[in-house]
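The instructor's notes for this session suggest beginning with a concrete chain rather than abstract definitions. Hand out the sequence below and ask the class to guess, before any prediction is shown, which regions might be ordered.
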Amino acid sequence: MKLARLVAFCMLFSVAAAFPVKSQTTAQTASGRSTSAAGTWAAGGAFGFSNPTGDDDLDTEPALDGYLEHFLTDRVSARGSLMLLEYDRADVAGTNGVDIAAINGNVQYQWDGGTVRPFITGGIGVYDYNPDFGGDETELGLNAGGGANFPLTDRFAIQLVGAFHGTTADGQPDSFFNGTVGARWLW
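After discussion, reveal the predicted structure:
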């Protein structure tokens, strides 16, 4: 039920963000579409998959991600994100899965490629492991990855992201790979 509400919110947010409104904090490119400028803000949501590495007992599962981003220069931004994951044990009846909620702080560098804007990202986060019927375990972690923005209007873009996450957790999964597709809104 929570997942359905979150997906519905992301869809409504994406539709609302698609309506063009002229932003005063964006710079124009040769194609006429805007790109980020110092002081620009962005927000977005994404849905995709998460694949745990090093544990064959955990399945690849859906991943949800939401973020708020502030551009420090026209190419460098600081991003805060919330990520939600839920892993089930593969073919192991009577065992618990693992839920993970993570808050990450990243630095992102974006190239201005016109119709496709690639980027790299990396940062640190706090990963809260909540086994289905066990105690909490909060761990530090690092992440790194990259992706591309595909601008559709001055303020709205589709975003593809791939990122590796590694934590200090003793239990599984201590590392995983996420791949997501989402919507990004600039203002």
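Then share the key points. The chain is about 10% helix and 55% strand. The longest strand covers residues 117-131.
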